[in-house]
Amino acid sequence: MGGRIPGLAAAACLGLGAWGLGHLDGVRGWGFSSLTLAILGGMLLGNTVYPRWEDRCGPGVQFAQKTLLRWGVVLFGFRLTLGDVATVGWRGAVTDLLVVASTLLLARVVGSALGMDRRTTLLVGTGSSVCGAAAVMAAEEVVQGGPDRVVVAVSTVVVFGTLALFLYPLLYPWGVAWGLWESDGLGYGLYVGSTVHEVAQVVAAGRAVGPEAAGFAVIVKMIRVMFLVPLLPVLSLILPPLEGEKGKRVVVPWFVLGFAAAVGLHSLGWVPEGVVRGLLLAGDLFLAAAMAALGLSSRVTAVRRAGCKPLILAGVLFLWLLVGGGVFNWTGKVWMG
Q1: Which parts pass through the membrane (predicted)?
Q2: Quick one: angle between helices 199-207 and 211-226, nearest 10?
Q3: What is the pTM of this model?
Q4: Rg (CA), the chain
Q5: Residue 175 and residue 206: Cα distance in Å, rounded?
Q6: Could you tell me if 198 and 31 are in contact, meaning their C-beta atoms sit under 8 angstroms apart?
Q7: What values do phi and psi take at 67, rounded to 5?
Q8: Where are the alpha helices (DSSP H) in the chain?
């Protein structure tokens, strides 16, 4: 454990700093999450001063990138209860399912047409369809794409998620005028929560209309996050075996099951609210440190080598979320009220 301390301390300090910045009103209003800030800060140091310390810090950075990520995902489950799912109802759950499934399918088709490797395609598709950077990091456990592919996928989430948080509020009055959603902001919140990439971006796009829209959007977004539980085993079946593996294997990461267990515990009310708040804080810090560790391990040359294809793929998926997600939301309003 002693050999991990320098790298773990570096990732923790970066993550803590990003978490603090992410909670400043000015920064939060722009939709920059602590995860985004952590990876940007990590990449800045990772491409400047960190390489000379990499031999000493490497074990701790890898520990943060893997172990802290897993526990961060588990603790993320305390943000949701089954009562929240009931509040959204079938309309929200079905809309989320359609958005996630169709976006992943489109990613597979477009990525193949662009000649992209399947692992990068799935990481970009997962980040766009589920919950941004955290989903990319969680999916890497199954996809085994390596830090270079992960940072490319996360970069696309940052670009198009940021674009979404500015564009979506501009669409709100048009949606009311065309009858796509009601003026109370709940229908708009469903649209935002089911189609925008990151949780912080969902909050920012929702708050631009009102607190009710933001609150509803976050619940819908959390249901999208829950789709990680069935999604990761499916990804393990889609991917070809890694070199040395014999045949396909179904991978069910323990931390995804832990996430589901956390949702269940929170739903039952067995964990005091004060403890829940502490667990959520710990989870946020774990995820921020993991993202900072990823940034430290990443090199800008990896993004350059990937070229513009991942950006094109993410752009197509963004347009699909904007338009196709809007169609799913409108259809849900017509058929399910």
Answers
A1: 30-50, 71-91, 97-116, 150-171, 216-239, 251-272, 278-298, 310-331
A2: 160
A3: 0.85
A4: 19
A5: 14
A6: yes
A7: -70, -45
A8: 5-22, 25-28, 34-46, 54-63, 69-76, 82-113, 118-126, 132-143, 146-177, 186-195, 199-207, 211-226, 228-238, 254-268, 273-297, 300-306, 309-336
Tell me the residue length of the chain: 337
Residues 6+ apart with CB under 8 A from 62: 7, 293, 297
Domain of 24, in residue numbers: 2-242+249-336
Q: How many domains does the chain have?
A: 1
